[in-house]
Amino acid sequence: MTTPLLLAQNLVKTYTVQRDWRSSLHFNAVDDVSLSLERRETLAIVGESGCGKSTVGSMLLQLQRPDKGRILIDGEDTMSLDREGLRRFRRRVQVVFQDPYGSLDPRERVRDVLIRPMLLHKICTKEQAFARASSLMESVGLSAAQLNLFPHQFSGGQRQRIAIARALCLEPDVIVCDEPVSALDVSVQAQVVNLLQDLQRTVGVALVFISHDLAVVKHLAKNVAVMYSGRIVEQAPTSTLFDHPSHPYTRALLAAAPSVGAQKKKQLLLSDDAPDPTARSAGCKFAGRCSYVVDQCHREAPPLATVGKDHLSACFLAKSLPSTKSDRESVVETPALRRLAAFRRARDNQPLNAEYEK
Ligand SMILES: Nc1ncnc2c1ncn2[C@@H]1O[C@H](COP(=O)(O)OP(=O)(O)OP(=O)(O)O)[C@@H](O)[C@H]1O
Ligand code: SF4
Ligand SMILES: [Mg+2]
Asked: What does residue 2 show for φ and ψ, rounded to 5 degrees?
């Protein structure tokens, strides 16, 4: 077995929130998360807002340290890196954030955005730097003539291309992309996703792709980890996860996604109330929203266990869930969902059951 490029083992990140003026609460924003990334592959991390995706991403980037667990690059433990080791790690693992406005310094010309890190990390000489910056601009679909412009002189999609060029300028092994297209116009999203895919093929960089968008994930990723309330609840190769989802939460996410191809019509299986990450429970964290729940789910937390080749699920019933076709019956009626259905009914003047029909 080859050593993974990037390996995260049992990561835990605990935050403290103030409950009132005299008490605070500790909660695990990330709880026992393990991930493995091979060279040149894309690993997607998906899940609702607040489930801990960015916290995992920032630990993989060494922007914050895990409270427990460790991260290895090419088998080397990053927890004990000295200053120089950390500098080398940062060169190898780059980031593209969601907000192309916030991630670029408005006072810096694009030329400097690209050249400064190259010189700092001694990627090339001063004389070579401009030519390298020009070729990077072309590789992300921009032109060398635009190197003298400031970030505000570009569109949102173009700014995200600059952020990708900046990530690439240090010739990284991994880019952590945290919702890289969700702030962009729908028409531009596909262009940026295709660019990432092309670059992966040509440059050979591995991607950790954090996203809400399952259609994009299906298109781009080799493996997917589904997070719920700080934990990974399902992990599998992309085709396995989309064809044979083995956790009720994954099924609900897939059923709610309009364009992943598995469903004919948008269905809502989840309320729009995301879970409270500070809530404590001995059992499965999804129990309150799961229509397959049994007594055991309230008493014990299901372990992330193997259910097939390279396929893990944290559900007691993973191997006995009914076929995905019958998920239509598993709609959890919540007040928020009822309100939404009533609004749509009024808008479309359709009978109640039509909302969930395929
Ligand atoms: N610095 C912090 N201090 C306290 N709580 C935090 C901090 N950063 C994140 N959290 C909390 O940790 C949880 C996970 O946050 P995180 O940003 O990782 O979620 P996410 O999955 O990336 O969400 P989104 O999809 O909205 O970006 C959330 O409940 C968030 O409020
Ligand atoms: S363990 Fe129980 S509550 Fe949790 S997802 Fe499975 S069936 Fe639902
Ligand atoms: Mg996030």
From this structure: -80, 155
Are the beta carbons of 177 and 199 closer than 8 angstroms?
no
Q: Which ligand has the nearest atom to the CA of 234? A: 2
Does the C-beta of 302 come closer than 6 Å to ligand 2? yes
Three-class SS of 187-247: HHHHHHHHHHHHHHHHHCCEEEEEECCHHHHHHHCCEEEEEECCEEEEEEEHHHHHHCCCC
| Inter-residue contact 264 to 358 (CB < 8 Å) | yes
Half-sphere exposure of 51 (CA within 13 A, CB side): 23
The pair of structure tokens assigned to 66 is: 């895990």
Same domain, 169 and 275: no
Cα-trace Rg, the chain? 22
Among 24, 54, 63, the mutation site with the greatest number of ligand 1 atoms within 8 A of its Cβ is 54
pTM: 0.87
- Domain contains 230: no
Q: What whole-number distance in Å separates Cα of residue 40 and Cα of residue 207?
A: 7
294-331: per-residue pLDDT in tens?
Answer: 999 999 999 999 999 999 999 999 999 988 755 544 44
Q: Are residues 165 and 278 in the same domain?
A: no
